[in-house]
Amino acid sequence: MAFLRVKCDLEGDVRRFCLDEPLVFLELKKHLETIYGMGEVVIKYKDDEDDLVTIAAEADLLEARNLFDKDALFRFKLFTKEPLKKEKKAKKEKKEKLCDETSTPKDENDNKLQLVHLLSQFKEAHKAQWKEVKHVSKEALKQVSKEALK
């Protein structure tokens, strides 16, 4: 049984493996998404004019196969689909925002917002403490009343 040698690069993470012939686009794509442990990837190869060409269907893979020698190593450059990059960027921005909220304020408006936020937290904590004091006081009065009646 014939096989193809494949080398892939996803943002510096280079992998090398062999796949059985005939190479099928959907199988290749699924295999790449599995070994890199991520969602949808875009597969590209360098053509004879040194351009990065996208492989998006079986016909594209066949064209790439025709450019490579029979025994040559298939070299693919992988990219993540745009929505995944946006999700990572959104997570990074959210994390940075959380870090900024806990760091020192950058201007007077940030300082005022932090003070308002801290004041509201203080009020909530203060209310909770007074509820506890009132509850304890009621319990203490009941206890004292019971002892006085004895």
Task: Characterize the structure shown.
The chain has four helices and five strands. The model has no long low-confidence stretch (mean pLDDT 79). The protein is elongated and about 100 Å long. With 150 residues, the protein is α+β, with helices and mostly antiparallel strands. Helices cover 56% and strands 22% of the residues. The chain has helices at 25-35, 58-67, 82-102, 108-149, and strands spanning 3-10, 13-20, 41-46, 52-55, 74-80. It has a five-stranded mixed sheet with strand order 2-1-5-3-4.
SSE inventory with pairings:
Layout: E1 3-10, E2 13-20, H1 25-35, E3 41-46, E4 52-55, H2 58-67, E5 74-80, H3 82-102, H4 108-149
Parallel strand pairs: 1-5
Antiparallel strand pairs: 1-2, 3-4, 3-5
Average pLDDT, all residues = 79
Fraction of residues in β-strands: 15-25%
Strand order, main sheet: write it out. Answer: 2-1-5-3-4
Main sheet specs: 5 strands, mixed
Low-pLDDT segments: none
C-alpha end-to-end distance? 98 Å
- Let me know the number of strands: 5
State the helix count. Answer: 4
Find the structural class using helix and strand composition: alpha+beta
Elements, N to C (H/E): EEHEEHEHH
User: Shape, please?
Assistant: elongated
- Helical percentage: 55-70%
